[in-house]
Design goal:
There is one protein chain. The protein is an all-alpha fold. It has one domain. Helix content is about 75%, strand content about 0%. It is built from six helices and no strands. Helix 2 crosses helix 3. The two termini are about 10 Å apart.
Amino acid sequence: MNPNRLAKILALFLGFAGISHFTNSSFFNDIVPPWLPPNASFWTYISGVAEVAIAVALIRPSTRRIGALAAVWLFIAVYPANLYMVWDWRNEVASQQFISWARLPFQFLFIWVALKIAQANPNTDRPKAPGDIA
């Protein structure tokens, strides 16, 4: 897939996720490891701001590479929350446990996609077919 299209898809995902940190903060607060200071809301909101900012950077071709690298670091930084979610949901119903476990490998997929976007050469990764997005 064209890296420019991947960037826009990842931007949509991150933008939606970032906004969700503000519209459904209780969900995100609950998966923040409790030992992180100062409190869960801080980490929920700061990661939401980061996700929205990275989404904007991914949309703009001039900031796409730095946005993709920032996305890699963000996905690495929030991985402990995904691990904590698996542990915290260990006594939940099987469907909930499945969701918590499924998030773990998807994080690596997101890292891979962000790296592909960051490695793309803006001069050669132009649309190659009708419908490709620049």
